[in-house]
Amino acid sequence: MVLEEIKTNWIIRHPSLALALGFIYSLLGYILANMFFIDKQVSIAMLFITTLLVVPTMIIALGDQMKHEATQHENFFQSHRSIFLGYIYMFVGAFMGYMVLGIFADQYILKIFEYQLDFLKKQEGLSLQVLNQFFENRPAPQLESVLSILQHNLSVVLVCFIISLFVGAGGVFLVLLNASVFSSFAIVMVKYLTETLQQAALVIGIFSLHVIPEAGAFMVAAIAGGILSKAVIAEKWGTANFNKVVKDAGKLLAFSCVLIILAGFIEVYITTNLFYYFFPIL
């Protein structure tokens, strides 16, 4: 419990330290999963283990944040700055951890990201064959593509909010899942498109243009549900403090939807065209 309190204070006072926490926990999750689970279970077991490591800290942080915003009258974004940055840095840290696993354990990538790659293939329809067809045919960006992405991502936002509402920091699992899926897809793109370190950095940079607001949206939704969950338990319904937290949770959920819409348009109209421009011939 003492260690959890220390880590919570780190996140509140210095949110950037959550980056190191996410990085270390993602690697530790893989190491423990690799020790105690068979090959086909490692890719999903590492997510559950990392979630178990992260959730206690985030539950305390969400509770502290709820108490803070119920009693303070700061600017809306200022009052949520620490917890939001804590989540975003933790996502970036986990993303970096999974990227390191994929790059330095090249021959084991199918084992490490088996679930994630299967998810991309079955749920998103992404495979090497699809990538080949995409870069050969180079379809023009269309509004229908944006709407399809928004339909899927808005449903994920809703799931993040609902899970966090009922399980407190339960949305952490979905945040980590998205970090692992994004990193596995980035690794596939790097291996498919690049031959040099500069090209790999370019691919990750282009990819990040829409991933950052998209991942941010999922985290904001998780924070909104987590804060509201704490308010339901700790505050009396109908009081001024409770109503303030509910109002702020609603604003956060609306903000996450705005980020998702922004990310959808960036992915279709900017990210796609940048890939076409920088990688004209494969």
Please name the defining characteristics of this protein.
282 residues, mainly alpha, 12 helices
Explain how this protein is built.
The protein is an all-alpha fold. The protein has one domain. It has helices at about 1-15, 15-35, 40-70, 75-80, 80-105, 110, 115-125, 130-135, 145-165, 170-195, 195-235, 240-280. Helix 9 (about 145-165) packs across helix 11 (about 195-235). It starts with a helix and ends with a helix.
Major beta-sheet overview: none
Order of helices and strands: HHHHHHHHHHHH
Distance between the termini: 53 Å
Mean pLDDT: 79
The percentage helix is over 70%
- Report strand %: under 5%
The low-confidence parts are: none
**Number of β-strand runs:** 0
Summarize it:
With 282 residues, the protein is an all-alpha fold.
Task: Summarize the helices and strands and which ones pair or pack.
Elements lengths: L1 H12 L3 H20 L2 H33 L4 H4 L1 H24 L4 H4 L1 H10 L4 H10 L5 H25 L3 H23 L3 H38 L5 H39 L4
Helix pairs in contact: 1-3, 2-3, 2-5, 3-10, 3-11, 3-12, 5-10, 5-11, 7-10, 9-10, 9-11, 9-12, 10-11, 11-12
